[in-house]
Amino acid sequence: MMTYYFKLACLGVRKTPFLSFLIVAMIAIGIAATMTTYTVSYMMSKDPIPTKSQTLFNVQLDNYTKEYAIEMGDKLGYTITYQDAVNLLKSDIPVNQVALNSTKETLSNPLRTDLDTLNVMVRTTTPDFFRLFDVPFTYGNGWDQQAEDDAAQVIVLTKKINDQLFNGENSVGKTVVFADRIFRVAGVLDYWSPIPKFYSTAVDTYNDPYDVFIPLNTQIKNEFYSALNSDTYCTQEPADGSFATLLTSECTMINMWVELPDEQTKAQYKDFLTSYAQQQQAFGRFPNSTRSKLLNVKERLIDDDMIPNEGQLAVWLAVLFLIVCLLNCMSLMMAKFFGRSREVGLRRAVGASKQAIFIQFSVELALLGALGGLLGLALAQLGLNILTGIYYYMPAGIMQMNLPLAVTTLLLALLCSLLFGLFPVLKASQTTPSSQLKSL
Fold it and tell me: The dihedral of CA 160, 166, 170, 171: what is its sign?
């Protein structure tokens, strides 16, 4: 029976091609605008590490001066001082713990005279980084604690940089010239780009991971430092401009994360932070308070405004645009179905029930909705491709519609067409045969 109704629906579309095209186009445009906006917003705010988002915590300490604390209120900084990071790394409570900094240096392959020297963004970190953040490797791996303690000149390359320097070949064990020093390649990452980049700063939340990774102690030993790229913030100015003074100052520059697998471990580490802060206050530091915070991934994203509110506003505006499109569709559907009142009258006269007319037009609505959804899906993908070109500096993954979103697009189009077409279909199915047969 449904095959019969589907054939009638196809005939109905052919009888009113212009109105049918306008309805499909209206649905497609509204769906495309909504799903393009929603896809970008969804990809920008999704859980970047769902397997660990509840067990990874950003460590925050209160080393504010009392004057600065009044300005900041309840909010603490997302970075800590180098001296605090060194002390906290001695704890054996976390399963994994990571201290992060960054800088900018030069990099080249000494055997490739055909390549220019690269200016690369450098993530300086501790050995647990790759385990804590589930970073995948194509070749090799990271460095161990011994290499960290020895400030070894080892380096991990991203896939992009390895492709540039070594044509994508296994470069583990080979050497590169990094900041005019010889470094040995320990590993090459596979593609890895968590979105948002929660472990970093709000400034580069949606940028690709940095180009290379080296031990934090290697950075300190060689004084690799760029004030512009290290995210250093000082509430109290250091005594002088030397790197050694910076490390012992109250300037925050280390982003620290710990992995705490359960509430008991979290409570134990929180007690450790409180005790540490009290100890430091006794030494004359932490003049404002001994507060500390542990923010999980979602809390950190919200606290540091890494998820833009503008995206949510854009989604609501797109939804309002979709509603306007659907209201216009309702008017077109009224014209379409009421224009076929003679057909309805004739079918009722030969025995068709109101229910049969309702089902026939509902199937036709579903067909229009499906066509609108498919066209809307194509337009949404076109919109995402255009946005990829405009926002070329952002990871391409943000501008991609995955399978669940594609299915949602089609279902949304189908639901909207049926919902907003319900009233026109009900009115059309109520047509009395006598009023129309007189005009035949």
Answer: negative
